[in-house]
Each structure stands twice: as structure tokens, then as C-alpha cells.
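User: Last request for today: this protein with adenosine-5'-monophosphate-propyl ester, please.
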Amino acid sequence: MTTKVAAYPFQIQSFEQYKIVYEESIKYPEKFWATVATNFQWKKPWDKVLEWNFKEPKVEWFQGAELNITENCLDRHLEKLGDKPAIIWEPNNPNESIRTFTYTQLFQQVCLFAQVLQNNGVKKGDRVCIYMGMIPELTIAILACARIGAIHSVIFGGFSAQSIADRVNDAQSTFVITCDGAFRGGKDIALKAVIDEALNENQFVKKIIVYSRTKISVSMKNGRDVWWDNEMKIATDQFKKKETNYFPAATMDAEDPLFILYTSGSTGKPKGVVHTCAGYMVWVTYTFVNVFQYQPKQIHFCTADIGWVTGHSYIIYGPLCAGATSLMFEGIPTWPNAGRFWDIIDKHQVNIFYTAPTAIRSLMGFGLEPLKEKNLSSLKILGTVGEPINEEAWHWYDENIGKKKCPIVDTWWQTETGGTMISNMAGITPSKPSWATLPMPGVELLLVDENGKEVSEKDEHGMLKGNLCIKSPWPGMLRTTYGDHERCRKNYFSTYENLYFTGDGALKDENGFFRITGRVDDVLNVSGHRIGTAEVENAINRHLGVVESAVVGYPHEIKGQGIYAFVVYNGNQLNEKETRNDIVLVVNKIIGSFAKPNKIQFVLGLPKTRSGKIMRRILRKIAMGEVENLGDISTLLEPSVVAAIAKGRI
Ligand code: PRX
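Assistant: Here's the final one, the structure of the complex with adenosine-5'-monophosphate-propyl ester:
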């Protein structure tokens, strides 16, 4: 069923059209999304487009429909786009060969690996943990899970054994797909060894499938661990015998879970955000095609890691559903030198380049030398994601990478939203440096004050300022947090009645443009990585000498935010340097090195209210260097600790 209805174009063509479409999408969401959804392949059409309430919350899109997202990513393109590159893979080491998978080749690999999964006992609904480097097999593994209806839970390669164990246990994953190791810049990272440590006490994981990437020696547990290549050979023989290269795509209900992705919140325990099949597919494809104004033949390069939501949505599902060519990069921007991204753009004639502000700021630091003799003229569109982009970085990106010819899309969204919620559409709607600008069709935003009342008073610059909420459902929104629906309700739907609360603060200007100012909860954004302060505190507190700790963010020139830890230590003889190193090691071990504190200050006590609550507001100010004007401290249990902390600031 692939009929196109002209009433709402799948790809918006002008600002005027955006305004009309936006208005219609809010007035008639069911009609609007039903029309958009006709651009996909369904096994069975829906009975009802939308049913929802934010109280429980219950959100169901395309009720009663059946589909498989991989038929939309792969099968339906085979006839016309079979020979078109679906994935171009650029290895970490620029001297190693590029690998390209056409849509036909990717389809075949996914079918084979789906067979491998089935041979190893994976069934629809099983949770499969994937912990791999950025290699094509990661994409194949993800799509093969989706093909047989298993729920993938990808864990970022930077997470430690303890973090993996927590996530595997929470999702009750019974299968793991990993690599011997991963290459990242000059480093070889041992992934299988980390998995072994993570699963040391695990009784439930039945099989671990290991792809050999770095060829380091690994231990393989008899009966549990199998090699990817051997299993693929077995599947190939089976296919040959059956004279087929086809693995049937499982029939999925629109609301069957597609994947779980863990993300940090205000509490110490990460949440397993659950996305479902149909709504997520429609949302990521629609936003991909519109935000980037994707044109056939363009090459899209999203630099995110597939371990985070950006990689899920805009390396894999969005581009592939749209029949695009997606470039996947194994390495890091500064290895073997700081011109690596520009080399890749030049070499592959990249048209759309989508990266994080932290990467731009870090590359800015190397000056213009790495750009010399790099031909970036293929670029048409630039994008940013993950954190607010400061104006200086925006202009550097615009002038030196886009040569002032490429629209920059500043895309605001979250793991929970599945895809972009606020962004300009490249060349179609206006842009404004460091403003995400306008909501996508179907996204109804609201700024509220502390009490949930819509803000109406403008500040001295004519702006509205408040906490960013969303009023009604969009197809790509999270449906639950795995295994704990009440947690989902509490986290997102209970702060303000009948609203989804994003956790972000925002400004709105006279044109209705939005600027995201950052998190208003206890969540940090370090180099675009989302980290809960409570998670870091829990890790620091595992150090035997630590009595308690409080973690806050402070502005960091490259990372956006840095982590500042105030630590109360019980040792009599404190060797500060050694203890700092030890604490960093503990955080590396419990979470991963990306969460390590940048500054650790030892203090005698933390500023607490009489009820024992840590006054983070004061610590935040001290971390930012505002030691003079700390506000009212009279309600503190021991106001004197504040002066001592301010004095000892690093
Ligand atoms: O604070 C916002 C920030 O990143 C948070 C979401 O993080 P995560 O779930 O890891 O997803 C990141 C990739 C989508 C948001 O709550 N954020 C994301 N994009 C922007 C942003 N802040 C400002 N501008 C953005 N474009």
C-alpha cells in the first residue's frame, strides 16, 4: 500500500507551505499523520491513527497496523535502488579499505544475520544487547534484530562493565552481540573482555555472538560464545541449500517495541527508553527528509555514535527508510589528525554533514590549517545536535565549513523524542545562530513557569522564558521506560499536568523561534553525552574514602559542560593528587571514562538545608566562579561551610 496523497507533501518545499502544514498538523493530527504514513509499506493498514492520554501515559499510533521496519529500510528499495550504496563505511585507519554496502548487499547481510539469530535461538520479543564498535556489522546486527522482531538494546562502546551489567539485567537481555575489540583513534579497545567482566555473575545470557574486528585474543566460553563469521557461514549454507537469500520479516504490531535505549535522568539509575515500530519509523523518516531536505543521490554523514539515539535515528533508520546513502565512520575527528572529518567529506563528496557542537568547538581549536587543500564544495547542508551551539562556533562552522553557502540546521531533540522536534528546515525555514527555531509539524510546544502555568510575560529583550513542555503526542515519542511504566509517568508526565516535560529550559522570541538554554534538572551534558549528576555521585561514593559527594556542571569551553565534584573525604591523611586519580578510576570503572569529573574539590561538608537536602544552587555558583554573590544561605544547617568551599574553589 504506497499511495501518495498530495494534500500534505511528504517533503515541505517552502516556508509558506511549512506554516500551512504546521497549522493543519496541529488541528488535524490524525488526518495529517495518516497522510504522511501512506509513504511507507504496511503489511496491514491501521484501524485508528491515534489514541492517547498523558495521565497514564498511554500513546498509541497507527493502532492495529502491521509492518516490519526493515521492509521499509531495505526490501521496498531493492527494485529501484538495489545497486545504490546504502552504507559507506570509513574505517578508523585511513589506509584501510572503505567498505560499501548497496541496498541489495545490506539486505542480504541482514537476512543472513537474521538467520544466524534464529539459529541461535533468538525469538521475537527477546532483548538483544549490542556492544560493538562503529562497523557495518553493527548496522547489520541492529537491522537483523528488527527483522526477526527482537528488541535491540545498544550500549555505547564507552560504557564500563558495571554499566553494561546494569543495562543487561534491567532489560533482561538473553543475547549479546559484540566484537573482540574496537579501533578508536590510536587506541584498541577490548570490548569482549569488558562483556566478560560484565556478565561474570550473569546466569541469563544464553549466547554471545562475537565479530572479530581487531583480532586480539579473547576468551570464548564453550556453549555460550560463538563467532560471527562461523555463524554466517552456516547461514549461508542453509540459504544455498534452500536456494534462497531471503529471510522473512516478522510481522510486527505498530506498537510492538523496536528498541530500548538507556539514558540518564535525575536519579542514579539510567532509564530504558522504549520506542515502538510504526510511530518511530514514520517520525525519523519524516524528520530526516524535511530537516535535511534530503535529495536522492545525496550522501549523508552523521558523525554520531550508533550507541546514542542520534546514530539510531539518523545513521540507520531515517536515512535507510528514505533510501539515502548513509556514511558511517569508525574513528574520531582528531585522528590521525584534526583534518579527518574534512578528509572524509572531500573523499566521499559528502553533501549533508551532521555533527555535535562539541566536535566543532574542538576542531576550531586547531585553526584553519587542517582545512587546507580540503575540497568541501560537495557540502550542501550542515547540521548540529546534542547541545546548545554557541554563536562563535556557529559562525566558524558557517564560514569555514559551509563557506556561507550551506544552511545550518540546529536540531533539538532527545532520546525520548525519537527524532528532531525543533529545527529549521534547510533552506526552507529561516535560521538564526544558536536558535533551534521552529517546531516540526505535529509538535505543540509550551513554555511554563515553575507551577506549570504558561508564561506570558516577556523579559527585557522581548523574550518569553520558561520550562519547555510538549502538549500533545507525536509519533516518535517514547512509550514507556522498560519494565517500569510508573517511572515513565513520574519522570516525564507528572511535573506538569497533561504535559510532557523535557527537562530543558528555553526562550521564545517574537517570531515564535525557540532557543534551548540547557537542562533545568540535575542532568549534565558533557560533550553531547547526557550524564546524571546522581549517577556520577553514586560512582564517586563507591570510593572507600568518600563520605559523600555532590556533582554539578560548569561551563567548559570545548565540552559545553564540565563535571565539578565536591567530595567529603574521611581519610585523616589525604593525599589529594592520589585520591583524585583514584576517584577518577572508580568513575571510569562504574560508568565509563566519558563521565569522569574534570575538577574534584575536597571539602569538609556540603551545604545542606535543615532537612538534609544539598543546596546545589550554591555549589553551581561556586563551580562557575561566582563566589561573591551566593544568595540567601541563612536556611542552611551550617552556613559556615559555604565560605570554606568558596575559598577552596579550584
Ligand atoms: O538538553 C538537550 C540537549 O540534549 C538533551 C538530550 O540528550 P540526549 O537524549 O542524549 O539526546 C541527544 C541527541 C538528540 C536535551 O534535553 N540538546 C539536544 N539537542 C540540542 C540540545 N540542546 C540545545 N540545542 C540542541 N540542538
